[in-house]
Automatic annotation (TrEMBL):
InterPro entries: Znf_C2H2_sf, Znf_C2H2_type. It comes from the Eukaryota. SMART domains: ZnF_C2H2. Transmembrane segments: none annotated. Residues 19-40, 46-67 form the C2H2-type domain. This is Zinc finger and BTB domain-containing protein 32-like isoform X2. The lineage of its organism: Eukaryota, Metazoa, Echinodermata, Eleutherozoa, Asterozoa. It comes from Acanthaster planci.
Length: 130
């Protein structure tokens, strides 16, 4: 952490770790790698949600673990291969356009979509089926 407090123009400090993309140099590899992520990393956006990631690998892991799994429709027996398919199904079959945190049936908002699904199943499933 001490490397973060060293001014870049201090000539008597060894800075062997050079950034391949700009003129900055750092005393440790960790400091250089932190610089690369903070300054030069492209923010890879998930096409299925608003999340962004510093690397393509992290984005792909997110998609694999969050979106590429079966999603049960809370209103019928359909199992969709991923969240995007469930969203399309909800719109096409149930005429519900849902957001990431807002309940499509009431003004309630939730920190996660799991919390929202739980709320929908507990509070609105009977209302929808009536």
């Amino acid at each position: 952490m001490a490397g973060r407090n060293i001014p870049p123009l201090q000539p008597n400090v060894s800075r062997p770790w050079k950034c391949p993309l700009c003129s900055e140099a750092y005393p440790t590899e960790i400091a250089r790698n932190r610089h690369l992520l903070e300054r030069h990393a492209k923010h890879w956006k998930c096409h299925l949600c608003p999340s962004t990631f510093p690397t393509m690998e992290r984005r792909d892991e997110h998609i694999k673990h969050i979106h590429a799994r079966p999603w049960d429709c809370p209103l019928c027996s359909l199992v969709c291969p991923n969240e995007d398919s469930l969203r399309q199904h909800m719109l096409g079959q149930h005429h519900i356009l849902w957001s990431w945190s807002k309940c499509p049936f009431c003004p309630s908002e939730f920190p996660t979509y799991g919390d929202r699904w739980q709320h929908m199943l507990q509070k609105h499933l009977r209302w929808y089926q009536a």
